[in-house]
Amino acid sequence: MTRRTTRVPTAARLPLALLTVGSLLLAGCSDGASASGSGAAAPTDGVLRLGVLNDIGQPPDPDVYYSGNGLAITTNAYEGLVRYEPGNHDEAKIVPSLAESWEVSDDFTQYTFVLRQGVTFHDGTAFDAHAVEASFDRRLAVDAGPAYMVQGVADVEELDDRTVRVVLSEPNSAFLDYLASPYGPRMISPTVLAEQAGDDVAQTYLSTTSAGTGPYVLSKAVVGEGYELTYFEDYWGDLDPQFTKVELPVYTEISAMQLELERGDLHALLAAVPTASRQKYLDSQDLAAYALPSFQVGVLYMNPNRPLLADAAARRTLFEGIDWTSLVEQVTGVGSVPAEGYYPKGALPADVDRRELVHDPGALASWVSGLPAGSTIQLGYSAGSSDAEQMANIIAAQLQALGMQATVTSHQASEVFGDFPANPQDAPDVLVSPGTWPDSNNAYMHGHVFWDPDGGLNHLQCSDETTTTLLREALVTGSDATYLAAGEAAYASGCAPTFAWSSDFIVTQDWLGGVEESHSIAAPATLDFATLSVAEAATD
How confident is the model over 380-415, as pLDDT tens digits? Predict the structure, then answer.
């Protein structure tokens, strides 16, 4: 048995007593033994066995999918023109994907791309300039959550088969980040889009198969049962993957996934690792645990459409009355730190976006004592999030101790993403969300989805005209100072302040190699499966 050092990257270092960073010494059995000591070996059949908790919620169609646990499918089956560099722990660096190079005009209105040659879609169609226009048009036609990323495209000029110029209707300094986002425009075979169009722009067809250029083809998609990816033999990249098939069965309980991981039947948990179990995995002799950089944040949503928090001052008072530093360390300690800015870590330079979390329990007590007798507050959380549930219960207990009636309620994703924004007056007063993320680490993309009236993650429909105006101005100029002003205005509105910065916490069998190098800072709950490996020691 050999010992292996698992490094927590610099950008994810957590200044908590519970997690000593620099390096974490995790014992690993070179023979691939499971946590139960059963001696389960690394696979020899080329199959990577993972899992999906509570299904993926939406079809694995890149123009429709806008959630979390299905990114493992969409990011491995589809590619965009550019992407964020995998394995980069220091910054969100945009690098080539299906575009080899690009130029951006000084006014952020024209983006010219030289396309990669020799790329084939899963159906055999060659990738060229026409596919770019067809893919952008299709995203607009579907008009789902991520459609905003191409709504400003005025024209896609095919200069020749491998050169396109994207012309925007107005300046957009964030457009490259739109394209690099895991939710950004993916290239889809124009042949499939034409032949399978039907009356829903090929959505029915792409709910059970893929038509991208990625290293894997979606070979199975059965809602509630599971998904499967199979390596695409004509993939353009110079790869020799050790895993030619990825199985993603659906589970309804994280505890069942943990049990199968610990006895060696599952090869990794890419998300939803309970905080209460994380230290156990850090100390494991048979499993490897990673806290990897991400854009994830903890957000407290507050509802202005109900009387209790209709006033911005009341919303700020509630937020600042909670000891977030202690709460984060108590509940989500391994993998999270108290937020030090208005945006996710790295969205703006650290010397620009800096703030301390204010804790003013006296103001909260005064506010509660001034409310009408019998006032109540409802705190909601997303079903399945044990961290959110624990936080909501702790906050409720604090408010009850001050004399306020507080209830905690669980809500399915369909409610949070559908019912809440449609009927916010019927939603909870507060929604506790310790692990959510923007579409990329561009400051505009965080501000837009959380703070704008039409933002995809503005679940409780709380917005502020000043914030929206400043965000639009910053989008045109790219000014850090203007983004900071927008963050300050958003905080003053008390709509969805950030309280934590979180990392991706992943647990794998000790023999699984290339985890850090296959991880993207922008895509939680997934890895580049084609660059994972079986560590040499596991095959000795």
Answer: 999 878 899 999 999 999 999 999 999 999 998 889
Residue 16: strand, helix, or coil: strand
Mean pLDDT across 102-119: 97
Torsion of CA 363, 368, 369, 374, to 10 degrees: 180
Q: Give the separation between CA 280 and CA 325, rounded to whole angstroms.
A: 23
Q: How far apart are CA 452 and CA 475, in angstroms?
A: 13
Q: Which helix (H) or strand (E) holds 364?
A: helix 361-369
Which residue shows structure tokens 């329990």? 361
The letter for the amino acid at 261 is L
pLDDT band at 540 (very low <50, low <70, confident <90, very high): low
Whether the per-residue pLDDT at 16 is higher than 90: the answer is no
Please, where are the H alpha helices in 64-146? Answer: 71-77, 129-142
Closest to 231 (Cα-Cα) out of 538, 529, 534, 539: 529
What is the C-alpha separation between 177 and 95, in angstroms, rounded? Answer: 11
For residues 212 and 184, is the Cβ–Cβ distance under 8 A? no
Report the b/e string of 316-335 with b at 16+ CB within 10 A: bbbbbbbbbbebbbebbbbb
How far from chain centre, in Å, is Cα 215? 21
Question: Cβ(245)–Cβ(48) under 8 Å?
Answer: yes
Give me the count of residues in the chain: 540
**Orientation of helix 386-401 relative to helix 275-282, angle to 10°:** 130
- Alpha-helical runs (H) found in 263-411: 275-282, 312-320, 324-332, 361-369, 386-401
Average pLDDT over residues 342-369: 95
Residue 516: closest CA among 215, 180, 85, 184? 85
Place of tokens 């709910």: 207
More confident position, 484 or 253: 484
* Cα(276)–Cα(488) distance, integer angstroms: 34
pLDDT tens readout for residues 204-251: 999 999 999 999 999 999 999 999 999 999 999 999 999 999 999 999
Q: Is the dihedral of CA 210, 216, 219, 220 positive or negative?
A: negative
Task: Indicate if the pLDDT at residue 35 is higher than 90.
Answer: no
Side chain identity at residue 228, one-letter code? E
Q: Phi-psi region for residue 419, left (φ > 0), alpha (ψ -120 to 50) or beta?
A: alpha
Q: What is the rounded CA–CA span in Å between residue 303 and residue 482? A: 26
What amino acid is encoded at 396 in this protein?
A
pLDDT tens-place string over residues 252-310: 999 999 999 999 999 999 988 988 899 999 999 999 999 998 999 999 999 999 999 99
Helix (H, G, I), strand (E, B) or coil at 83: strand
Longest distance between any two alpha carbons in the chain, whole Å: 71
What does DSSP say about strands 82-84 and 99-104: parallel, antiparallel, or unpaired?
unpaired
* Secondary structure (DSSP) of 177-244: HHHHSTTSPPP--HHHHHHT-TTTTTTTGGGTS--S-SSEEEEEEETTTEEEEEE-TT-SS----S-S
Distance of alpha carbon 470 from alpha carbon 454, whole angstroms: 15
Q: Report the SS3 class of residue 458.
A: coil
Whether this prediction's pTM lies above 0.90 is answered by no
